[in-house]
Amino acid sequence: MSLLVLADHHDGHLDDATASVIAAAQQIAEHAGGDIDLLVAGENIDSIAEAAAKLDGVTRVRVADNAVYAHQLAEPLADLLVSLADDYAYVLTSASTNGKNVLPRLAALKDVSQLSEVMAVDSADTFKRPIYAGNAIATVQSDDALKVMTIRTTAFDAVSQGNSAPVEAVDTVVDNALSSFVDEELAKSERPELGGAKVVVSGGRGMGNGENFKMLEGIADKLGAALGASRAAVDAGFVPNDYQVGQTGKIVAPELYIAVGISGAIQHLAGMKDSKVIVAINKDEDAPIFQVADYGLVGDLFEILPELESKL
Amino acid sequence: MKVLVAVKRVIDYNVKIRVKTDHSDVDLTNVKMAMNPFCEIAVEEAVRLKEQGVATEVVAVSIGPKAAQEQLRTALALGADRAIHIETDERVESLAVAKLLKKVIDEEQPQLTILGKQAIDTDNNQTGQMLAALTGQPQGTFASKLEVQDDKLQITREIDGGLQRLELSLPAIVTTDLRLNEPRYAKLPDIMKAKKKPLETKSPADLGVEVASKVSLLKVETPAERKGGIKVGSVDELVDKLKNEAKVL
Ligand SMILES: Cc1cc2nc3c(=O)[nH]c(=O)nc-3n(C[C@H](O)[C@H](O)[C@H](O)COP(=O)(O)OP(=O)(O)OC[C@H]3O[C@@H](n4cnc5c(N)ncnc54)[C@H](O)[C@@H]3O)c2cc1C
Ligand SMILES: Nc1ncnc2c1ncn2[C@@H]1O[C@H](COP(=O)(O)O)[C@@H](O)[C@H]1O
Question: What is the pTM of this model?
Answer without folding.
Answer: 0.97
